[in-house]
Amino acid sequence: MATNNQGSRAAREAAAAARAQAKAEQNARERKIQIIGGAVVLLVVAVLVVIGVNAAKKNAGGIDGSAALPKGVTTDTYGVKVGTAWKLANADSIPKLELWEDFQCPACKFAEEKSGSTIAKLAKTGKLRVEYRPTIFLDANLTAENTASGNPDSSLLATMAFGCATDAGKAQEFHKTVFANQPEEGKGYSAGVLNNYAQESGISGQKLFTFNDCLTSKKYNGWVQNSYVKFNAAGVTSTPTGILNGKALDNDVLTDPKALTKAIQDATK
Amino acid sequence: MKRLLSHPFTGLVSRLVLAGVLLVAGGAKFFEGGFAAQRAINAYKVFPPAWAPFLGYALPGLEIVLGLLLLVGMFVRISSLITAVLMTGFIAGIISVWVRGYSIDCGCFGGGGEVSEAGKNLRYSKEILRDLLFVGLAVRLAIWPHTPFAFENLGKVKADSPEFAEVD
Questions:
Q1: Pick from A94, A227, B57, B85: CA 20 to 30 A from residue B14's CA?
Q2: Which residues fall within 8 angstroms of residue B58, CB to CB, at 6 or more apart?
């Protein structure tokens, strides 16, 4: 009996040892697989980080410091300032309206139709500092339609033309004319029609030649891209966006001349 | 019902569906380029605009990593747990813009930004239902992470277990 017991104990111990060894091997194997998996994950993360950082750098550092700027445009905003108020001694106490717009945006056309003349009048009489802040995000949204109609990157083209018109001293007029003639969404602008709008805005003679040169040479491409970088950095997600003294206006206010005038009066100290 | 849910084959399907969704959605956003992902994130008005350039790459990047892990079947439990949390976050984001009255494109598969009000409620409902389904699949995988044809099975092979013989 005793030998039998001893035999079965030895067998049990041997079996336990075998199990323990199998378990240890299994653990080692599991760890090996996890290490391989973890290493591959780290590799993928590293590749994604490199791609992401490079792309983000391209965007954030997207300001082209050597870009030519239209008359009066400064590198802090890249916006087009219109009106007499900017040059007054007490300019800082006069309300400032920044308008983010894309020349292909139908809602911007609507806002210009409703409030454009009111804004122009307040700018002219020195009661409002107006700054047009162009963006061109619709070019990406309308790539297929723009290309199909033969007018690729129409927001960019129209905004470059806006810069050229600013040099001619007709920023506000050109702004108004372009929106008044805005085509059906997607059709876009050709250099030819923008030239017509320049004439309609009162640019003529030598200045019209200069405008034409400026547009066809894409002189202000870099400026427009810089303004677009500012748009994205500002976190503005739709156009039109009116910002009165740093505070975003409700679009119901922006498109209602009475409410807008009142908001501007309230902001006047 | 529980038997069907916990069946390894159901797990495989859940894993591959989630992997596909994550890779397509993450890839579309990650490689969209330009400012699209930033604009999509800014449209939610949840995070400060300064965070958008980082999140615009980090969130899609995380989706790609989770998608790859689920595709090959590595660290399935932890990946599906993170996926469930991420998707719940997306649902919370959509509910939050809905409640605040914004009309945006969720930017789930690229795109994003503000869009017209038309069909807003139906759009948000569909997006939430879709994401709820994904949360369900992820939770199922977190509870029963073992699935066939998973890379991590290689480490779990028992020589005497016929169940895994084919994987070895």
A1: B57
A2: A52
Cα separation, B5 vs B102, whole angstroms: 37
| Residue A74, domain member (yes or no) | no
What is the DSSP-derived secondary structure letter of residue B110? B
Q: Mean pLDDT in each 10-residue stretch from start to end of chain B (168 residues)?
A: 90 96 94 77 83 87 95 95 97 94 88 80 94 97 94 72 43
- CATH of residue A230's domain is 3.40.30.10
Chain B residue numbers with beta carbons less than 8 Å from the beta carbon of A228 are 35
Does the beta-carbon distance from B69 to A29 stay under 8 Å? no
In a domain, A65, yes or no: no
Q: Which two tokens stand for residue A103?
A: 């020349």
Query: Quick one: pLDDT at residue B86?
Result: 97
Residues in chain B: 168
Q: Which residues of B touch A140 (CB under 8 A)?
A: 34, 36
- For residue A237, name the pLDDT band (cuts at 50, 70, 90): confident
Judge whether A132 and A228 are in contact, CB under 8 Å: no
Looking at residue A58, its pLDDT comes to 67
ipTM summary value: 0.79
Please state the domain count of chain A: 2
Taking all residues of chain A, what is their mean pLDDT, rounded to a whole number? 90
Structure tokens at A66: 């050597």
- Tell me whether residue A252 is in a domain: yes
Phi first, then psi, for residue A247 (nearest 5°) are -110, 130
Please give the Cα distance from B82 to B16 (Å, whole number). 16
